[in-house]
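To assess whether the prediction recovers the assembly geometry, we first specified each molecular entity separately, as shown.
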Amino acid sequence: MIVAMKKASVAVLAEDRERLLESLQRSGTLMPVKPGENIAAADSSDADALAIRTEKSLKLLERYKNRKLVSDQEPATVDYDSFAIDDPVRIELLREVETLDETVQRLKGEAATLQSERAALLPWIDLEIPLSELGRRGSTVVHAGIVPPSRLAAVESEAASVSSETSSYGSSPEGVALVVAAFAEDDAAAIERIRAAGFVEAALPRIRTTAREALAEKDERLAGNAAALAAAESRLSELSGRRTPLEVLNDRTLSASERLRTPVAETTSAAFLEGWVRVDQIDRLRAALDRATDVYDLELTDPAPDETPPTAVKNNRFVTAFETITDMFAKPSYGEIDPNPVMSIWYWMLFGMMMADVGYGVVMAVLFSFLIKKMRAKGETLKLLKLLLYTSVTTIFWGLLFNSYFGASIGFMSFLQILNPVEDTMVLLGISLFVGVLHIFTGLIMKAANNLRKKDLMAVFADSFAWILLITGLGMLLVPSLITLPDGAKIAAAGKWVAIAGAAVIVLFAGRSVKNPIGRIGSGLYALYGVTGYLGDIMSYSRVLALALTSAIIGQVMNQLAGMVQGVHWYGILFAIPIYVVGHVFNLVMGLLSAYVHTSRLQFIEFYAKFYEGAGYEFRPLSIQSKYVDVRADGE
Amino acid sequence: MNITAQALAIIGAAMAAALAGLGSAMGVQMAGKAAAGVLSEKPELFGKLIILQALPGTQGMYGFIVAILVLGKAGALAVDAPVAEGWQLFFACIPIALVGLMSAVFQAKMAVSAIHMTAKQPAASGRGITMTVLVETYAILALLASILLIG
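The predicted structure of the complete assembly is given in tokenized form:
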């Protein structure tokens, strides 16, 4: 059902504003609305910036998480009082993580630089002279450079031809390290020719040590760097194990930002807040106000005709699971009947009809109860898992009726069997379409109920009842011509008049909003044309047959394939088992997917189109943002 | 040499499985490419996108079912069955073969749009799925037509 709402107007002393907001947030009972046009919310950018910083640090810690700790998975629980205190430990932890992050980044950058410097020096490790003495030495100029291996011979012969001496050292990925010594007087011309032959001069650091010594120093610094990096990272993974204060800080900051963004009108002495409250939570709202201050004024009013309150639905445990289907389509409008209870029963049945296998139903029951326990899912995911768990019941139910156990039939269970989908295809088609007619009638009855609520009896009669008459009549007319029934002719004759009665009501009353009598009949005739839409809708339920048949045939084919292997020899069973498992897992997964989307489609297009308005928006009260931690709000 | 009824039925079954399967393979590939692009930015949408990617995959299964049903019928045909019976089974395969091939590709185009919509607005994935499922209606009608024609 849809919970009734009241508009709450709260006035407190200006100095109590923050206490009021905190208390309201803790209780999570009020969805604030702007009290006037010109009320700007406070600036939340500082809180938002802090939230982004904590989020970033938490993501960083996530990377250093010790995966072996299973307890890590569970969200931490903190009680409200410690959540509310501004504990400096949290911001210190944030700073430490940020500093460590910077350190890690810096060390990694330095290590990369050292590595590339090291790589540049490595070919010269055997060069005996200090690197600063390259260049002019007395009457010669010494050049250090790299030559691609393919050009080495050319460079050496070119050097010999200009009477320069060469000696080669180690090699780097670019080529061979080569030292060229030329006479100082014709160095410029000589080196020009050697360069043209493929010599590339290396930019070596001008240091007073040899390359070997420089390399040793680089290695030492790299080792120091690696040790510092390991220390920083081990500190990070240690912090990752106790990151709860940071998670609390994040949720606290998000909550603070939420409070800041709450529109509050303020004068010099008073603060004024307006919002929606569920009628079943008014006492909790009062308790929250009492906790905040002694001096307040609370005024509760019913929604004005021009106001649209938010939608909150409250249902039993079974129906709640199916709310996720409706919410995927649209939230119910505040003023209409909650479609979830009726829809849930239909979803449950149709889903089972499409799956229809005892074995798959049992697997679903085991699998989804296990997942619900194991995943500790919340919110929409939990609802979906529960929905799949509940539909395992109808899957087993229809599986019994079709005598289908992992695609095979069991002889002694055949007393429950009503039909075989593969052989009695036409019968199952008939059943599917009949179920579709009942589903559509339910939609028309829901429409009537909504119109009854608006006291529009004419609409109940002309827009719901007449269509039920017409479709029933057409069915009575048509069915006896397809299957032989006792008194089929009489049924058909009666059906003709039922259909005519329904059609007459539609023609006469569907256009009742049109004043002009001719126009009214014309628009009634046009409404009658809508019968083609109804026929299309009914045919759409043939997908129930199609999916039941698909699931049955693929299951049987898998069994046949496995059976072929199994029959070869006594050890064939070893090869057959993987085929059974993979085949049925595939069929189960595809079947679940198809049943989920096609049942949803039948609800949205065929069922909801008849009555559902779905123009609501969610009731989202000001509440504690528990993204990482569960806040235990004691006394709530 | 005259073609036998059985041979005609088998050609039909092969076409149903091959063409519908081809359509689904193309469709799942198209939707998968779009989904992979979105997942590189938003890996948390995997659960929603995998449904959209799988939707154009059902046509292949429908073609497969028709192939199995037709092969069952073909096996039961007498060796000297009239060729007309073979033609009946052959043409029974046409709806799912052709509609399966084309509708899987068209559905994939719709799925790609729905995937992009989900990337921008994850809350709207249900609507995207519904709109994509609408395309499949015609594949289901073709499947039924094929099954009814097999008789």
